[in-house]
């Protein structure tokens, strides 16, 4: 026994030493090879890492746990090493990256394995725990009639609560709605009459000039235009219209986010989670700012969150969902608004379809019909409706950021390595001025000079050139793709310095042209300055720990870990929830730039991801502390006692 303990401790010490070496390799990338190795911090980190490893190895470990831990460990070590190198050198081919990756992988494997075992237990106990938990959940679902179980027999969605749900449900829902709305009122006063940045000016100008296109979501543009016209009719001012839009968006997002909070309470999530979700959605600066920012991403994210809740309800009670026409109608409406508020909402749903058909294969005909209806609604909306309104399709260049960026990178960094034919093929689609303005993390300068209409008519010549160039510049193509996306998956300081400061969130009202401009006239200047520093200077980075809640990579890592946890914990029915996150993330990787607003669905849905982790942990509990018959009875009847 003593030999085994010595061996385990030796492994823990070795993993800790390698982790310290890996961090030093990363420091060498930015030319600070001895900063950590000669410091007291290194000794403290070594001791902490050794302790974590020793504690993990004290308890049982088996092959399946280590296999899943190794998958996560290797993945997170790679993302750390690549992201660090890209942040400082704009390439992953630095000679220190591979040693750093190899040295960090063992300790990351220990950390991921420890997390999986803590939350899900060991594999041989899962089946028994799953059976006991399943029986208890079914018994509780059959006996509940109040807050926790009301959604089993009634319609879902914000519009149904005042019609069908019991009084405790309605009361809690409207409490959440009011709490969220009121929590954003100070932000409205600070940014009065709202935050009209990003694409708002372009959208309103398109309507004013009668040149609507599908480049921006038509429904969102219509909301901006209608509130502006109503405001002008009331006071003759754009400011009034902006205020009306801000209030409308606050109402919509409060209604949708209240559904998320209600779901967590219905499912008897721990108080820290559903109360934390309400506070997080209401008061965290990211959510507060997005609630007042007139960009399509705000309402889309709230719709996305409700869609995730819908999938959870479907997975938990499929027989109830497929027996209810009202539920299925709400599902179709929910999906339609995913399409209507972001163009990549359509691609996200397309990605989900095979997983929906697999997850609900018992009802595959009904599920297939629902998917066809959703796609049919999209076809009608983008076909006859667009034609009747004179809306033209968006430019093809929006889908080509990865293509044009990689070609521009090679043209700038290794023009001598291109043949005359390859140069001509690139210049036929991208003007030289655009190629010379190449920025590795921002595709818009090149995109502005891309011949999108010509590419849409005949893409093959450029694609052939692009493939030909890529065959001889594979590393540059990989660097180009990763440099344009690493802000989404690297949990480090990847916020880029711009002429205006650190561009995390555009806290201002952009000046576009007089007939569409909105001017920020703050009623709370001190609070406005607080939010301006967060958005335009990333002031949150000065606050340890809190800064992580703003980091996009942290939420990506949370998503990846929860997905790994669901797989390890055999939570097959809840895995369907990972499909929309995965589909949406893949569409973001094809975008022109990393922005917080594009990744906002991952931030706003963090409470739901934590809920999934808690579900796995809750299922593990029966194998550590089996419930007696009386305890099961008490737990199933507790739902009836709630909010009486």
Automatic annotation (TrEMBL):
Transmembrane segments annotated in the record for this chain: 12-29, 35-53, 65-85, 97-120, 172-192, 242-266, 272-292, 335-360, 367-389, 545-568, 575-594, 600-617
Descriptive protein name: Glycosyltransferase RgtA/B/C/D-like domain-containing protein
Region (Disordered): 623-644
Highest taxon listed in the record's lineage: Bacteria
Pfam families in the record: DUF6020
Keyword terms of this UniProt record: Membrane, Transmembrane, Transmembrane helix
KW Acyltransferase (keyword) present: no
Biased composition (Basic and acidic residues): 623-638
KW Chaperone (keyword) present: no
């Amino acid at each position: 026994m003593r030999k085994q303990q010595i061996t385990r401790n030796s492994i823990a010490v070795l993993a800790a030493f390698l982790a310290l070496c890996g961090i030093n390799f990363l420091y060498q990338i930015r030319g600070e090879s001895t900063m950590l190795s000669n410091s007291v911090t290194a000794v403290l980190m070594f001791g902490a890492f050794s302790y974590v490893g020793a504690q993990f190895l004290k308890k049982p470990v088996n092959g399946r746990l280590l296999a899943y831990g190794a998958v996560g460990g290797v993945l997170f070590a790679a993302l750390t090493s690549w992201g660090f190198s890209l942040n400082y050198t704009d390439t992953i081919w630095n000679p220190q990256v591979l040693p750093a990756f190899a040295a960090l992988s063992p300790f990351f494997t220990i950390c991921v394995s420890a997390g999986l075992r803590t939350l899900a237990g060991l594999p041989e106990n899962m089946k028994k725990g799953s059976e006991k938990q399943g029986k208890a959940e079914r018994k509780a679902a059959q006996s509940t009639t109040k807050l926790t179980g009301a959604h089993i027999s009634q319609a879902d969605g914000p519009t149904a609560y005042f019609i069908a749900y019991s009084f405790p449900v309605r009361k809690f829902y409207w409490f959440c709605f009011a709490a969220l709305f009121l929590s954003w009122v100070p932000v409205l006063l600070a940014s009065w009459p709202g935050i009209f940045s990003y694409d708002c000016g372009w959208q309103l100008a398109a309507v004013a000039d009668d040149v609507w296109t599908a480049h921006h979501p038509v429904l969102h543009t219509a909301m901006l235009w209608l509130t502006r016209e109503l405001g002008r009719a009331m006071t003759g001012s754009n400011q009034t219209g902006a205020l009306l839009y801000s209030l409308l968006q606050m109402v919509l997002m409060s209604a949708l986010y209240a559904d998320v909070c209600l779901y967590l309470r219905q499912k008897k999530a721990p108080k820290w989670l559903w109360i934390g979700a309400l506070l997080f959605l209401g008061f965290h600066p990211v959510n507060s700012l997005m609630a007042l920012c007139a960009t399509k991403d705000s309402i889309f994210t709230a719709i996305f969150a409700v869609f995730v809740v819908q999938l959870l309800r479907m997975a938990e009670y499929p027989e109830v969902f497929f027996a209810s026409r009202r539920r299925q109608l709400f599902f179709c409406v929910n999906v339609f608004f995913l399409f209507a508020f972001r163009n990549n909402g359509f691609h996200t749903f397309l990605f989900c379809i095979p997983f929906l058909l697999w997850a609900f294969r018992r009802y595959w005909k009904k599920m297939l019909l629902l998917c066809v209806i959703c796609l049919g609604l999209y076809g009608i909306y983008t076909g006859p409706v667009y034609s009747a309104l004179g809306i033209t399709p968006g430019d093809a260049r929006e889908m080509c950021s990865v293509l044009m960026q990689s070609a521009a990178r090679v043209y700038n960094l290794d023009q001598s390595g291109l043949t005359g034919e390859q140069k001509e093929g690139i210049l036929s689609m991208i003007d030289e001025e655009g190629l010379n303005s190449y920025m590795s993390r921002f595709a818009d300068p090149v995109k502005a000079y891309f011949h999108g209409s010509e590419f849409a008519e005949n893409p093959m010549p450029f694609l052939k050139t692009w493939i030909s160039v890529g065959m001889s510049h594979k590393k540059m193509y990989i660097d180009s793709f990763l440099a344009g996306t690493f802000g989404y998956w690297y949990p480090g300081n990847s916020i880029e310095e711009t002429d205006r400061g650190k561009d995390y969130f555009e806290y201002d009202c952009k000046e576009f042209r007089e007939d569409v401009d909105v001017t920020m006239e703050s009623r709370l200047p001190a609070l406005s300055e607080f939010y301006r520093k967060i958005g335009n200077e990333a002031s949150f980075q000065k606050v340890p720990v809190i800064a992580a809640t703003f980091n996009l990579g942290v939420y990506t890592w949370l998503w990846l870990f929860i997905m790994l946890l669901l797989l390890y914990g055999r939570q097959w029915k809840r895995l369907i929830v990972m499909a929309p996150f995965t589909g949406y993330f893949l569409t973001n990787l094809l975008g022109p730039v990393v922005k917080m607003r594009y990744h906002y669905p991952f931030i706003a849905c963090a409470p739901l991801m934590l809920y999934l982790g808690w579900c796995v942990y809750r299922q593990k509990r029966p194998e550590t502390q089996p419930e007696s018959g009386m305890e099961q009875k008490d737990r199933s009847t507790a739902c009836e006692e709630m909010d009486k």
